[in-house]
Amino acid sequence: MRYVKISKQNTYEFLERLKKIGTLYAPHKISEKFFDFCEVDDVKDVMFEYQRTIRPPRRFFYPEREVLFTFDTRKVELYENLPSDKKQILFGVHSCDIVALRTMDSKFIDDQPDPYYKSRRENGIVIGLSCLPDEYCFCNVRRVEFVDAGFDLFFHELPDGFLVRVGTVVGHKLVDPYEGELFEEVCPDDTENMSKFEEKRTSMFTTQGNWDNLRYFMELRLNHPMYIRESEKCLGCGNCTLTCPSCKCYDVQDIPSIDGRTGERIRFWDSCQFRSHGLVAGDHNFRETKQDRFHNRYQCKNSYCSATTTSFCVGCGRCTYFCPADIQFKKNLMEIAGYKGGYS
Amino acid sequence: MAIIDGCDGECQPRVGVYALTSCYGCQLKLATVQKIMEIANAVSFESFYMLSSASKHPADVDVAFVEGSVSTEKDLEELYEIRKHSRILVALGACSVNGGVQSWAEGEMTHEELHAKVYGTGKIGMKGLQATPISKHVEVDYYLPGCPPEEDEIMYFISAFLFGTFPEPKDYPVCSECRLAGNPCILIERGEPCLGPVTTAGCKARCITFNVPCIGCRGPVPHDTAWFDSLAMTFKNKGISKDQVRERFRIFGAHNPNLEPMLKKIYGGTD
Amino acid sequence: MSQSKTQDEGKENIYDTAKCRLLRKYKLSESDKLFLFRFEDPEIATNWRFKPGQFVEVSLLGLGEVPISICSSARRMGFFELCIRNAGRVTSQIHKLQPGSLVGIRGPYGNGFPMEQFYNRDLLLVAAGLGMAPLRSVFLYAIDNRWLFGNITIINSAKFGNELLFKRELEAMKDIATAEDISIVQTATRDPDFKGLHGRATSHFEKVNVDPKNCAVAMCGPPAMYKGMFEELIARGYDPRYIFVTLERRMKCGVGKCGHCNIGTATSWKYACKDGPVFDYYAITSIPGLI
CB burial class (10 A; 0-12, 13-18, 19+) of residue C179? Predict the structure, then answer.
């Protein structure tokens, strides 16, 4: 792997140049407690230190709502509405979110590719950014705290800039033209600083070890009283799934036009926390109660993704941070698995 | 796909728009949707006083939109007549769907007490009733909630109706649309009693986008999935009193049968 | 668009549909109708293949898509049949379609029944209600490949006699069936006026002409039926390795993406549309939530 270094000042210049390639999105502070990926106007607004964005990066490849087809009912024709090949550049993606995107790829590209997602992914550039965890983070026990694929560039914080890992050919093409100008060679001090950063980061996680056996305890304790207690608090609002970087459920609707012959077939994010998610013909519901739906998410998020050899949950902490009812996902999982300590 | 059964381009569906006790805002919304001219070309408005003085009342129609709550005996008589003359009846807006703000006193005061409070000993020209949603009196085929209803939902309903079907109703809360809109959560960040988690989606979190907590104008999420108890618990943990919570829930949700029992569960029996 | 390419090859958009013309429709019961479709593109019509137990997504523009099991024989090519219950906003409109109308079709989807594993075995098919639709496909497949199977029994049950799907078709086959070692049992569970057999499928096991030790079982019905059937079958010595059921879920996309048919638990997370809808005895009994 190629490693280069960039100073903080040059990073801003690099972001300016990225803006010329396509639409650049990066984390911005949108309120006292929240961050979101926003289109970069002034590069000085980009936040290099943040914990999590309110909306997951998957939305740039798999939008909340999109038109799949337009149609003509008299001709009985569907007309494909594929996305434009406009470049989207995501700067500042944390390792958890990068792994989450790869879990998305496993469903939307690896097997019977979804042309909409695939096209946007192919026109997307992902630039990672190192981070320091807060008490909601548990990517380390999910084994995704350090990624080695799924990014074009990855920026590691140094006291005087960033150590940049180049992950793909696309990444090389971004770096190579500016070598000597914006990027310089990595010196032993930089490596030493990165090492110190990683050491500090590791010690900051409030959970330690790994949770590999969690999914077995999940099954052995399917009727754990936690589910009843915690689902009572649940508002069924779906925030946990809509902010989740690896949730991918969607629903499709035909919206006819007033002319009675044309319309749009749209796709929009759905949530397993909604009543209609498990509903079939004849009003039978496979996830009848709020507790069923609550339970469903815990199983789904902890199921195994063979493409990343991790669980679908990447430990980003969004579902807890953005839960209006303050339901603690990490704490609840630890309760099921009987993991002691390590929780602050 | 045929435009309503046996009506492919040859006949126009007949539509009636009626108001009971209300502010006429829902009709105004319907009359001012961007594509009103296209709607007017596709259907025949047999009764819509806001658009035409040639309206009949009630008229024989394929679909009737009724706004307003039943708040007088005259309202009730009219509603029965409308139902008799309409193939499909749509409750249009918060008053019609959930009784509206005029139902705030539901269960708190009798109609007599309410009358005395508002009019004192004065008389009014008609026999008043406690405000109720129209579904308390007649069968309702579809609900378009909101104060007023959203334009895209009105359009979706009308075009789906022309297709001989109806839109898939939303059974999830505003809270989800708010997150998708990328709004910071007012409830989490400021501890304000936002009703987004129990209110039917469809407005794309309009108020919260303007930094105003949701007051629930679209009414509780249907199919008993408005979890007043869980939300009351959240509010209670943030130090909001039962009275405050109750008042807020009641603005547009006073008629919901789950409201009082669920509140009682969290705050206990005292009123 | 769809007409220029076959369903299998060169398909770029997995959500695109191919046009199918409704050629015939028959009333099967008050709420169920049988629809016979043919692809407009003759190339697709000739080359389109499916397995018993698979389903298609039927698309009605302006209304949406619904997953429907194919109920015709996989061996009779050029057309396919769908048995559709009038149960929702899309299916009610399908019921109103007149012959000559066009719909969009995607598929076939799902794993289907592993028919090869059934070869040289007796066959017991147990259908309840609308469950007869996918099992008719299995039954006709077995008849069209009669030499591949041993004795065959089909038990068709419904609450009321007039809800028995394909009742007349099965009755008409009875004479030939006896000559071909096929036993046809039709029973109504809650219909005292029904002129025929009464009671649940399990109460007619004496009419079964199969050897439990060497028999494959295919079932489709309401989930509540499976538990009792499993107990009955195991008690009678049926080989659990050859017991299969097909499940119903809300398969919106059919290709393992939309998540509505998710089932299972953390180590065995399944998509009914891709990993199923046919599951074996061990999957059903070991994965909580399947039935």
Answer: exposed
State the nearest Cα–Cα gap between A146 and chain C, in angstroms: 24
More confident residue, A337 or C8: A337
Q: Which CATH class is domain C2-109?
A: mainly beta
Q: Using a CB-CB distance cutoff of 8 angstroms, which residues of chain B are in contact with residue A260?
A: 1, 3, 42, 159, 162-163
Q: Tell me the CATH number of domain B14-162, given options 3.30.420.40, 3.40.50.700, 3.40.640.10, 1.10.10.10.
A: 3.40.50.700
Contacts of B5 in chain C (CB under 8 A): 96
A234, A258, A271 ranked by CB distance to B42: nearest: A258
pLDDT of residue B1: 37
Question: What is the domain extent for residue A285?
Answer: 214-337
Residues 6 or more apart in contact with residue C64 via CB below 8 angstroms? A252, A253, A254, A265, C89, C90
Task: Please answer yes or no on whether A259 and B38 come within 8 Å at the CB atom.
Answer: yes
Read off the pTM.
0.91
DSSP A92: E
**Domain residue ranges of chain C, discontinuous segments joined by +:** 2-109, 115-246
* Contact check, Cβ <8 Å, C60/B164: no
Residue by residue, what is the 3-state secondary structure of A269-290?
Answer: ECCCCCHHHHEEHHHEECCCCH
The whole-number pLDDT of residue C10 equals 45
Closest Cα in chain A, distance from residue B257 (Å) = 18
Dump pLDDT digits (tens) for A83-119: 998 999 999 999 999 999 999 999 999 989 999 999 9
Residue A332 is encoded by which pair of tokens?
Answer: 């609840």
pLDDT tens readout for residues B137-173? 999 999 999 999 999 999 999 999 888 888 988 999 9
Beta carbons of B176 and A237 less than 8 Å apart: yes
In B, minimum Cα distance to C60 occurs at B1
